[in-house]
Design a protein that fits this description.
Elements: E1 4-11, E2 14-21, E3 24-26, H1 27-33, H2 38-46, E4 53-55, E5 58-62, H3 63-72
Antiparallel strand pairs: 1-2, 3-5, 4-5
Helix pairs in contact: 1-2
Length: 84
């Protein structure tokens, strides 16, 4: 999960572009980054599996938390239970 943000830096020789990794993601952007719906991301938050940080009332997923959460996901596809 490495979105780069272009930043303009003014130096002695003019302007150059630097790129910084995005530090946090809105729920919409995090969902897009991991190819899930926003509702699915909210479900993981409600279960306490994914922990947002808040700026005022806005939930943000910190880059490190998103990476931790992804690493904690199963590496094998879970079996589906078939209802009798």
């Amino acid at each position: 999960m490495s979105a780069l943000i272009p930043i303009r830096e003014h130096g002695g020789d003019g302007v150059s572009d630097i790129k910084l990794d995005k530090l946090a993601y809105s729920l919409d952007n995090f969902a897009a980054a991991v190819d899930l719906s926003k509702e699915k991301v909210r479900q993981h938050i409600e279960r306490g599996e994914l922990v947002p940080s808040y700026v005022d009332h806005k939930p943000l997923i910190m880059r490190e938390e998103g990476e931790r959460w992804l690493r904690s996901r199963p590496s094998e596809r879970p079996e589906r239970s078939i209802a009798p």
